[in-house]
Amino acid sequence: MDSAEYERRIAARFATFDQDGNGYISREDFSTAAAALLAEFEVPARSEQGQALYVGAEAFWQGMAGIADRDGDQRITRDEFVGGAVKRLRDNPAGFAEIARPFLHAALSLADGDGDGVAQGAEVERALRALGVEREIASLAAQALGPVTEDQVVSAFASYFTVPE
Ligand code: CA
Ligand code: CA
Question: Which CATH architecture has domain 3-162?
Answer without folding.
Answer: Orthogonal Bundle (1.10)
